[in-house]
Amino acid sequence: ARKAGGDRLVVYSHQLNAEAGERLDLESLLRHAVERNELELHYQPQQALHDGGLIGFEALLRWRRHGKLISPADFIPLAEESGLIVAIGNWVLEEACRQISVWQAEIGQRVVVAVNISPRQFAAPGFLSHLEELLATTHVDPSCLELEITESVMVEDAESAIALLHRLRALGLKLAIDDFGTGYSSLAYLSRFPIHKLKIDQSFVRNMHAVREQGAIVQATIGLGHSLGLTVIAEGVESETQRAMLSAWRCDEIQGYHYSRPLPAASALNFLEGSLQL
Ligand code: C2E
Ligand code: CA
Ligand code: CA
Ligand code: CA
Known about the structure:
Layout: E1 2-4, E2 9-11, H1 13-19, H2 26-33, E3 39-48, E4 54-65, E5 68-70, H3 76-82, H4 85-107, E6 113-116, H5 119-123, H6 127-138, E7 145-150, H7 158-170, E8 174-180, H8 187-190, E9 197-200, H9 202-206, H10 212-227, E10 231-235, H11 240-248, E11 253-255, E12 263-264, H12 265-276
Parallel strand pairs: 4-6, 6-7, 7-8, 8-9, 9-10, 10-11
Antiparallel strand pairs: 1-2, 3-4, 3-11, 3-12, 4-5
Helix pairs in contact: 4-6
Bound molecules: ligand C2E and calcium ion (CA) (3 copies).
Domain EAL: 23-276
Protein name: EAL domain-containing protein
């Protein structure tokens, strides 16, 4: 058993193992997770540095089995390998759109939700048409939905990936590059991505206050993003020291435990209502 970063995520792989009998068949359990309503989204608030206001939320997937939450780090890789990520990813998009509609009706204001898109989901044939259909049936304003993709979508076929990003952008969706700096794509590609936002990976943020070189990378990335006309958000911001440094470096937004942990939908609504009253 392991307790992940105070995120109240407890993972019991051996318990899953025991449940499934002699052979660990996580894949078949995962296959049924969608239809058994075992998946849920938690929402982590994102904050504007210039006025401290709420920007929106990142939707983070959790798998609830017998009351315990399983971290996506423990099943997304398997979902990717098995191809289950397409069905799971579609569910995530549908659930995020449903939640956007519910919240907007509740508070009478637009709410932006960012959704993680895995490389295999992005490359799957029906991805664009599923999104078009979803936006049409839910009537969600496309600019309320942000797609977080990683540089790894470029690995297979950069030209088709860039073409798809253009079509997604034309739909009115917001696009962000996630985990920026951890992939292998060249900086030349970045200038060709029709994206809105760059997310600085938390591995750079973690020690930026203590290790001068890490700070230099973060600062340079903020400058790079801005010179390309992008909004820059830093993730994994845990302390006031980090917040103040990012603010001094003119980073636009932050996300991390300092502002808020990922919240179940009901708590996220409270957070939303609380931030409206400011
Ligand atoms: P990510 O997209 O980089 O998401 C950020 C991760 O950092 C989340 O972990 C979040 O809970 C955690 N985090 C947020 N603030 C802090 C902080 O201040 N300190 C630290 N140490 N961690 C922080 P989580 O929720 O366990 O998700 C892990 C990864 O799983 C995500 O990384 C993402 O790559 C993937 N994932 C999550 N939901 C989905 C999904 O719906 N679809 C896909 N394809 N992948 C997902
Ligand atoms: Ca993300
Ligand atoms: Ca990330
Ligand atoms: Ca990450």
